[in-house]
Design a protein that fits this description.
Family: Belongs to the UPP synthase family.
GO molecular function, one term: magnesium ion binding
Helix content: 40-55%
Number of strands: 6
Distance between the termini: 44 Å
Organism: Alkalispirillum mobile
Bound molecules: 3-methylbut-3-enyl trihydrogen diphosphate, magnesium ion
Keywords: Cell shape, Cell wall biogenesis/degradation, Magnesium, Metal-binding, Peptidoglycan synthesis, Transferase
Protein name: Ditrans,polycis-undecaprenyl-diphosphate synthase ((2E,6E)-farnesyl-diphosphate specific)
Number of helices: 9
Amino acid sequence: MRRDTAAGVQGQAARSLPEHVAIIMDGNGRWARGRGMARHAGHRAGAKTVRKIVEYCGQRGIHALTLFAFSSENWRRPRTEVRVLMELFLSTLDRESERLHRNNVRLRFMGAREDFPRRLQQRLLEAERLTRDNSGLQLNIAASYGGRWDISSAARRLAEAVQAGALRPEEITPERLGQEVCLAELPEPDLFIRTGGERRISNFMLWQLAYTELYFTPVLWPDFTPADLDEAFSDFAGRERRFGQTSEQVEGRESGRA
Ligand code: IPE
Ligand code: IPE
Ligand code: MG
């Protein structure tokens, strides 16, 4: 792996470090199985990786980090695994909230939170309230989240506004709908990372990832390190983002339609 010099890192930060990184943290189960352990041991190890990666993103000055922790489809897993995941979610929150707050991290949760046990819902609200004025890393945890849920919830809110006479159907545009989906207040993810080797989106941020750069790594989430993240950043730095335009336009050698 290429090791940047201090000056190199600075140059990269100014030029091409992503502002918003979204990660599907996959591979906990396989990590555990490979060690002859139960799947929940993989989830515990994965929670430690979350801590390290969040800390590192703070150090690198990343503006926003969105982590897929539990999908709307993960409820279909065996009941004991779901229970372990809920307990881990709750205990991690209890242990980490204060520390994140001290580090100026703002926490947000996105997903169908009414699906969670009451006690957990309460903790999510408390953590959001505690950290809401923090201006450091914007940390978003997607839990009981699905991209289709996100878009359909947004559509329903717009339909309600139309029904109430506050919005006309012709005012429903990509821009307007984009204001209703999760994390509308943040820039869309620049870089998407999926660990664990699968090359699919699995119903993560379908709307917000429209022009995100995709990066897949075989590294299992519990094994994922800041050096692996740096490798993804380096790969990202080499991409040309065209947003539908030509290379010449992006490089400023040719302008767009008048
Ligand atoms: C990701 O790891 C964590 C969750 C989905 C909650 P997995 O549990 O999906 O791990 P694999 O894909 O089975 O290895
Ligand atoms: C996606 O991983 C969800 C999370 C990592 C939270 P899955 O392991 O659930 O995805 P599939 O089932 O392999 O598509
Ligand atoms: Mg998986």
